[in-house]
Amino acid sequence: MNENTNTITWELKESTLTIKGNGAMQDYSPLNAPWYPQRMSIIAIIIEDGIESIGNNAFSMCSDLTSITISNSVTNIGKNAFECCDKLTSINIPNSVISIKTSAFFACGLTSVVIPNSVISIKRDTFACCKSLISITISDSITSIEDAFWGCENLKHIYLQCTTPISINKYFTEKSFSTLANSCILHVPVGSKDKYEQTERWKEFNNIQEDIITNY
Predict the structure, then answer these.
(1) Across the beta sheet with 51-54, what order do the strands follow?
(2) What is the DSSP letter of 175?
(3) Sheet holding 144-145, edge to edge
(4) Is the pTM of this model over 0.85?
(5) What single-letter DSSP state applies at residue 26?
(6) pLDDT tens per residue, range 146-161
(7) Alpha-carbon span 54 to 140, nearest angstrom
(8) Using an 8 Å Cβ cutoff, are 108 and 77 in contact?
(9) What does each C-alpha distance from 211 to 160, 162, 192, 203, 215 come to in angstroms?
């Protein structure tokens, strides 16, 4: 077992990396997490209860990672935390998470994502280049979306729980938004289609459908 200065310990055993302790994980510079030299042997990660934050670059380049368990004590997912985890096809982001930082899931293998209703904004590049991503569900707590989905060439469905159209941040480029508008079906709550069709940027979607979008 190995220990860092924040009273947080980690152990890699039989391809499972377990992070335990209390408090926030430290932020790492790229390629500098202590388990980075063993990253190719990591298949599963368990973030135990008591961990409050996943550090920047913590698990980037863990290219064989297929499973991640995040406890309900985690409130923050750091920048590039899971960058290039291209075998990670699914993740359950708990409702405790308030902040997901820039490029947290850049170039992951995710096929679908649900943003919990504890998160209030989607930052730039969060899911960029997730080429297997097909659908994303965005809760009604989200108030702002930046350019988070560029390079998601197979994204086909965006589910919005928001009856009032979300603000599109100035960092969302015209090209990226137009690509989404032309290739995705925008699913909105029953009774809100007219609002989206009359709101700048959102009205660019060619296909807006009303659906009963359940809570989670």
Answers:
(1) 23-24, 51-54, 76-77, 99-100
(2) H
(3) 121-122, 144-145, 167-168
(4) yes
(5) P
(6) 899 999 999 999 999 9
(7) 24
(8) no
(9) 9, 12, 10, 17, 12
Question: From residue 55, how far is each of 22, 73, 79 by CA, in Å?
Answer: 13, 14, 7
Average pLDDT per run of 10 along the chain, which is 216 residues long? 65 96 94 94 97 97 97 97 97 96 97 94 94 95 90 94 86 81 94 94 94 69
What's the CA gap between 209 and 189, in Å, rounded? 8
> Residue 154's closest CA among 178, 130, 137?
130
Nearest to 150 by CA among 118, 114, 184: 184
Lookup: tokens for 87: 């075998």
CA-wise closest residue to 98 among 124, 72, 134, 129 = 72
Residue 37, φ and ψ in degrees, nearest 5: -60, -20
Instruction: Quote the pLDDT of residue 3.
Output: 40
Two tokens, residue 194: 């007219």
- 192 — phi, psi (to 5°)? -115, 0
Cα–Cα distance for residue pair 155/152, rounded to 1 Å? 6
User: Which structural domains are found in the chain, ordered by start?
Assistant: 1-110 (3.80.10.10), 111-216 (3.80.10.10)
